[in-house]
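Holo prediction. Input below; ligand is FE2/S2 (inorganic) cluster.
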Amino acid sequence: MEDLRFEVEPNIQRASTPPASLYTDERWFEAVQQRVLSRAWHWIGDAELLPPSFHAAPTTLLPGSLQEPLLLTRGEDGRLAAFSNVCTHRGAILCEAPSSSRGLRCPYHGRKFRLDGTCVGSPEFETLADFPSSRDHLRSVPLGVWTGQLFAGISPREPFGAWMGSVLERFAWLPLDRARPIAERSRDFEVRANWALYCENYLEGLHVPFVHPGLAQAIEYASYSTELWPFGSLQIARAQPGEDAFEPPPGVPEAGQRIAGYYVFLFPTTMLNLYPWGISLNAVQPLGVDRTRILFRSYAWDAARLDAGASRDLDSVELEDERVVESVQVGMRSRLRAPGRYSPTRETGVHHFHRLLQASLTA
Ligand code: FES
Ligand SMILES: [Fe+2]
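Structure of the complex:
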């Protein structure tokens, strides 16, 4: 196999796609975990992860790949914080279930911590010099909150505000704080394909007329557009006449147009689909070089519009996408496959994703 790096030419007119081994070789999958996933922000859940009556709850960052045990706490001041959920004594998992207690005690040898991660004591350590000290406190983990959604990372390369910045700038006009979870619209899918293939498929509308006959009737293909952001991208689908749509207010770049959906991608694993009824959030969880789980979560501010327009039949659209992405995974295993080219009009989002991936792998 080639050296673990690839180059995607910045000029899309001349660029070729990454080598197929990126999607099939375990060593690439390992490199992606080390250099990309552990250095990025990921969705970890919504406010239900730590209901108001609890002060601490465990969660896992990217189960199946990073598998990092995290602890979410709500301090006396109501502030949320995230920590490593690994005890600083001998490494036991500190918190195994949501807890309403105002402190934490390790189930293994009884070490105690405050909700702000400070170690306050450990049985039979009373005579130990310089104990507890800062190295005995829980390791703090970056946590970002956006409209009730929680994001964390082991050591993200950019601050949360920068990563989420384009969303904050672009979508302040939406009633995001009115969005409520719709449990019956939440589900998890498993795809037999590499996580990046799933993202790439998400990042272009070129396949819509071929793969999604239903969706193709709700959106206007000719005006479908992509905007590149520093840490992701935005695709905008205008609505066909008569289909349910956003009517963005004056001051928004699409004011005066009818928008069926905004598709936000935040590198590397977060997708926020904004529809007239609310948000469909997709969190991508790489499970193996050719296995990926996608969590679908819905939050509505106008549930009456749920089954209209571009989101009329999200389950069918998802199955259509999965079928094609799994077919690409088979294609990537072909010994005869060579890198392809990009459509300069329709695949700028895919090209940008590959550029971000390359930058993250080589940083
Ligand atoms: S591992 Fe936690 S107190 Fe020993
Ligand atoms: Fe699709």
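The first strand starts at residue 42 and ends at 46. That is the main takeaway for now.
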